[in-house]
Write a structure and sequence with these properties.
The protein is of the alpha+beta class. It has eight helices and five strands, in the order ββαβαααααααββ.
């Protein structure tokens, strides 16, 4: 659906091409108009219901579980593997020197391996802190508590902030032609643990 303004009010409009509707055997009017406030008010009430007293614990658990695991970035893991392998090589080269190997040849191997290890260490240090930090359950609870009346916060929020909240929640709205209703769904598995600040309200 595309946004547009009519007489100063925000609307969503779906223009489903007639040929596509016929080809897919979908009974869809050529144009569907939906006032934004007719959608956002019940949508925000629905979202706020997740923070009702009888559901708050379940919601906090879902938010905590939806965060990414504390796995290091793949590049950092690869760098650590190279460092470990280089350390093992250096131990073997020192043992070879002790056993009487040609010092000139072994010294070249050592220099090459030390340079490889230095590059891997630089890659490892460059990736420190890039893995997103998981919020604890207590931190999420404090954040939710600080927001207070979620319905009021969403109602009074800056439109850009509200749009970001919807995006972070993976909100998807689907128009149901048969019932002429809109189905709303959020996907917490897509949520990356980034909490957005909502201005306005409390």
């Amino acid at each position: 659906m595309q946004g547009q303004y009519n007489h100063g009010d925000a609307y969503y409009r779906c223009r489903f091409p007639q040929e596509n509707a016929l080809a897919n055997q979908v009974a869809h009017p050529s144009n569907v108009y939906l006032r934004e406030d007719a959608l956002t008010d019940p949508l925000d009430t629905w979202l706020a219901s997740a923070f009702a007293p009888h559901r708050i614990e379940q919601t906090i658990t879902a938010m905590a579980d939806a965060q990414p695991l504390d796995h290091p970035p793949a590049l950092a893991t690869a760098a650590q593997t190279i460092i470990t392998a280089c350390n093992a090589k250096l131990e073997r080269y020192r043992a070879a020197l002790d056993a009487g190997a040609d010092p000139t040849v072994v010294t070249g191997w050592i220099a090459q391996t030390q340079a490889e290890r230095a590059r891997a260490e630089a890659d490892l240090h460059a990736n420190v802190g890039k893995s997103p930090r998981r919020m604890s359950r207590a931190e999420i609870t404090s954040l939710v508590t600080a927001l207070g009346d979620i319905a009021a916060v969403l109602r009074d929020a800056d439109p850009a902030d509200k749009a970001e909240v919807y995006r972070q929640l993976g909100l998807r709205l689907t128009y149901q032609t048969e019932t002429q209703t809109v189905r709303a769904a959020v996907d917490l598995s897509a949520h990356r643990g980034v909490m957005v600040c909502v201005r306005g309200g409390t």
